[in-house]
Amino acid sequence: MTNELIEAIEEFEKLKGIPKEMIISSLEDAIRIAYKKKFPNSGDIFVNINKETGEIKIFRRAKVVESAHSVKEISIKEAKNIKDNAQIDETIDVEILPDKLGFVAMQVAKQILVQKIVSLERDVIYDEFKDKIGKVLTGKVSRIIGSNIYVKLEKGEGRIPQGLRIPNEEYYVGKELKVYVLDVLKTSRGPDIILSRIDANLLKYLLQREIPEINDGIVEIKGIVREPGKRAKVAVHSYKSDVDPVGACIGTKGVRITNISKELSDEKIDIIRWSDNPKEYIKYALSPAKISRVEIFDKKAVVYLPADQIPLAIGKEGINVKLASKLTGYSIELK
Fold first, then answer.
1. What pTM was estimated for this model as a whole?
2. Contact criterion met (CB below 8 Å) for 251 and 214
3. Measured at the alpha carbon of residue 95, what is the angle toward residues 45 and 75, in degrees to the nearest 5?
4. pLDDT of 162-189, one tens digit each?
5. In terms of Cα–Cα distance, which of 42, 220, 17 is closest to 122?
6. Average pLDDT over all residues of the chain
7. CB 184 within 8 Å of CB 191
8. Cα 247-203-284 angle, rounded to 5 deg
9. 15, 186, 244, 262 - which has most CB atoms within 10 Å?
């Protein structure tokens, strides 16, 4: 029976990912609480479960005295039956037979253990996911409740709140998604794993995965801004003169950037060349519009361009100039 207990604990460890030592500690605590409920005046009780054999032992801590008058004490005569060289004022552990616990108390212990295991499982999931904040994971939509999209991950389940969804993106149970882990919160119902589909770091991850030159450090991403589901701008720089950073990101016939766009619900992605010259950088950021010249006053840029280029510079619903401003850090006025 005792070996079966260890086997069951080890199987549970594999199933739930909770370390064996934590399960045993919880079981010891559950038995201790159950014993104290059945015998409230039993003194200082603790439980030990042998990690190899599964043998359960219950002990009462007692102070050695000449003549015992409470459960917190043991007479020197009885103490010497347990330990030959027992001394007055010494504290020794007195074993209590486990069968004194009884069936009802064991049922109580089982209930307590279940509660503790649920709590442990939540703690394990929290600890695992708090280390994944800032990372991108793959999951599948498991359920849709109200404005929340729940995503089943390898371990645990996260949710995408409405404000972190790509506008107009279609979600359905079973759909596979790449998600950015924004935060992990501790709640009474377990860890609340907050996922995002609109974070710039999600696009950064997809670029690194799809484009070897970025992954290898030949091309560096210098800036990313997004209007989720509509448009994004990515500034890139090459550390090799013979590598075109824009061409490397777009790929032959645009295949690389198209694959990334599909992952983000067909979000249009502009790849532009980065420059440490603000005027040049602003010109690149406003592409596809052709710019005549740029004048800079503190953090404001006045951009001169032909009249027929202004609609291109502004973009649909003003998105192009808005993203260019966010990317470069300059307030942009078109003239």
1. 0.73
2. no
3. 90
4. 999 999 999 999 999 999 999 999 988 8
5. 17
6. 90
7. yes
8. 45
9. 244
